[in-house]
Amino acid sequence: MKPGFAADLYNEELAPVAPEKRNWSWLNMATVWMGMVHNIVAYEAAAGLMALGLSAWECLEVVAVAYAILFVTMWLNARPGTQYGIPFCVLIRSAFGPKGAQIPVVLRGFCAVFWFSVQAYAATQAMDAILSTLSATWASFTTPVLGMPEKRWASMAIIWALHAWISSHGVHRIKNFELVAGPLVIVVGLIATVWGLRVGHGLGPLFSVPSRLHGLAFVATFALGVTGMIGMWATFAVNIPDLSRFVRSQRDQVIGQAIGLPLTALVFTPMAIITTSATVLLFGRPIWNPTALLLALNQPLVTVIGGATLILATLSVNVVANILPASYDLINLFPRHLDFNRASRLVLALGVFFVPWLWFDHADNIYRMLDVIGGTLGPVTGIMLADYYIVRRQTLDVGALYRHGDVYDGRGGWHLPAVITLVVGGAVASAGQVVPALHALGNVSWFAGIFIGFGLYLGLTCDWQKRSVQIR
């Protein structure tokens, strides 16, 4: 513990990363994003866009716009992490105060643990499919235990153990894992794309389907598609400093994210459409779910290799996008008791208590609730950008972030402009999820949250500062 730092705000995991230890290059940042962008949800996203009436080429336009906006947001929010070597849960104290910061930290942590649970259970199903293909004995273990077959419990234990192994020893092992996993998933995806090109004798029938939308209907659907694509990564836009704090320079984090985020997404989306085009010719219908495609092909070797790839892709996104931020958030809540290894194991345990197998096939209510929580993180992003670039002018007193009663303390640890903005912005941005008359607002909830968070926070902060001067 450094002298003067509060024990409930500081430990070695939350401390700024020393410049000589910030050794992530642009390649590390790029491979981390490659591993995250290639996931089942992103693969199936093109299906949702085409179901709305967009053509395959228009899907690519949506992806290009959405990921360009995401890249700019990630780049801007990543800068203070690289500049000062601090994680999100420490950076956010400058805007919310040390006590007020716990609100966005808990919200982000909840989302991270939930998504870890969801994705890990998807990998559990893939592991079960692999082992059932390899062993008839394994396939026979179907006695239900607490709502799930015993073989599924064993598969889940294996998946949880793999997550524990990768996340042990902190970000250094994660960095090395992603250096292999990200490119490897791309290689397997290219193999699937070559297969799709051969079956379809070219791009396939999906690329010849014309758009069904024109005029205002096209504009509205295009905006909805962009918002939906951004929504997949809106929570990570908040805690990108958790990664960028390890990058050696601003140039490395910009180049790495440019390659790993928009460029990879633009390569991955046509790969998904081409592969699915082949399923139209083989089965008479598009199969967008990769697990369902493996089962439909009914080839044991393909099931094993494909299932292993899905598991690898899930591990790749889960350890970085969910376990890592959730661990830092838990450390922030209990700095006296947790380090990264203990916190990551706690994330794994909490993931079990989300019991994903009980609602996995009936998740509408859960996703609606998470949309509301995610809607509140849009204002958090706007608050962070306004605070760092306008209010603080890109200059932070890092030591003060670890002390009570200092320049970021606000009123008793609460900087009320940020708290008020979060409540108001979150309510407005999420209103479309709960008020039918405002459903259209839900289509642009992230953008609404960003603009409300940015503008309202600046207005309230100026008023707060004027009142503070008058009181003095």
UniProtKB/TrEMBL annotation:
Coiled-coil annotated residue ranges, if any: none
Subcellular location: Membrane
Gene Ontology cellular component annotations, sorted alphabetically: plasma membrane
Keyword annotations: Membrane, Transmembrane, Transmembrane helix
Transmembrane regions: 59-78, 179-197, 217-238, 259-284, 304-331, 343-360, 372-391, 412-432, 444-462
One of the Pfam families matching this protein, by short name: Transp_cyt_pur
InterPro entries registered for this protein in UniProt: Pur-cyt_permease, Uracil/uridine/allantoin_perm
Membrane topology of the entry: Multi-pass membrane protein
Organism domain of life: Bacteria
One term of GO molecular function: nucleobase transmembrane transporter activity
PANTHER family found in the cross-reference section: NCS1 FAMILY PURINE/PYRIMIDINE TRANSPORTER, PURINE-URACIL PERMEASE NCS1
Family: Belongs to the purine-cytosine permease (2.A.39) family.
Protein name in the entry: Allantoin permease
Native source organism of the sequence: Gluconobacter roseus NBRC 3990
Lineage of producing organism: Bacteria, Pseudomonadati, Pseudomonadota, Alphaproteobacteria, Acetobacterales
